[in-house]
Design a protein that fits this description.
Helices cover 73% and strands 0% of the residues. Helix 11 packs antiparallel against helix 12.
Length: 296
């Protein structure tokens, strides 16, 4: 039975990936709060921009992966709207442009808070969102997807969220930004781990395709370990011990790494993909709470 229109578009938005958009805004805003510069209106606009860029990127992936042959009716992962014939390619392309247009409007609203330099950040974010699977040199097809996620959903998103509220960039945002970027990259890694065979056939040379599943498992574990080590850096900077709250997730991180190693079916990896997104959300929530409490 054909799913409802709402379910089709919700699936195309890929809810499992949306923590990657929310987490950096939450962490950047918490750091701004700690430093006495939190601005609610700027935080809301940052969140709107991040979510719209993430959804627009997902729509672009749906469209371009189908056009390039990476997504077909034979794929083993969650249903892709265009590949499954649920949405016409031209309609998905228009939806992508609409969402990126809305992201542009949200981004323009931030200029009053941060200045014209944000234009460059916004243009680069949207261009890379499209260029992840589209354009003459699609990042995701050349093993650069993980770097894109680390940079734009980690370093850039956290630092920019902080800067538009406080009024300046700050070096002490980098450990948190790197942690969020690494955990967001793990979401992409699990997705690519599941799709390694179909990606290889379609010429999509992700890092998992290039270096194999064994290296992917090492990368996943290293990203978890580095993220869990980051709060100790803030403790060393003089933050109160509340900033160490994310370390409580260490047993869950170990469990996720073991599940990736043991996974044998696409279904197991689909569940782990969702749980990896939830881990990022939990980490960001605990980190933000710890940073806020560290000020009191």
């Amino acid at each position: 039975m054909r799913p409802s229109l709402g379910r089709i578009w919700l699936g195309a938005a890929r809810p499992r990936t949306l923590p990657a958009a929310v987490a950096p805004v939450l962490v950047g805003s918490a750091l701004a709060w700690h430093d006495g510069g939190f601005v609610a209106s700027a935080a809301v606009l940052c969140l709107a921009f991040a979510l719209l860029v993430q959804i627009g990127t997902n729509f672009a992936n749906d469209y371009y992966d189908f056009m390039k042959g990476a997504d077909t009716v034979h794929r083993v992962g969650p249903t892709r709207a265009v590949a499954a014939g649920l949405v016409a390619p031209a309609v998905m392309k228009r939806a992508m442009l609409l969402v990126f247009g809305l992201a542009t409007i949200a981004g323009l609203g931030l200029l009053a808070h941060g200045g014209l330099w944000l234009l460059g950040v916004g243009v680069a974010s949207i261009a890379c969102g499209i260029g992840y699977t589209g354009g003459p040199y699609p990042l995701g097809y050349h093993g650069l997807g993980d770097l894109f996620v680390f940079l734009f959903f980690g370093l850039v998103a956290v630092a920019t969220t902080y800067a538009v509220q406080v009024g300046s960039l700050a070096v002490h945002t980098l450990p948190a930004a790197a942690a969020i970027g690494l955990l967001a990259a793990n979401i992409l890694l699990v997705n690519n781990y599941r799709d390694v065979e179909t990606d290889a056939t379609a010429g999509k040379h992700t890092l998992v395709v290039r270096f194999g599943r064994r290296w992917a498992r090492v990368q996943y574990g290293l990203c978890l370990g580095a993220a869990l080590a980051a709060p100790a850096g803030y403790w060393a900077l003089g933050y109160r011990p509340w900033c160490l709250l994310p370390i409580a997730l260490a047993p869950l991180a170990w469990s996720h790494a073991r599940r990736l190693r043991a996974a044998r079916t696409p279904g197991e990896l689909i569940v782990l993909l969702g749980d990896t997104g939830k881990f990022l959300a939990a980490y960001a929530g605990l980190f933000a709470l710890g940073v806020v409490l560290a000020k009191s």
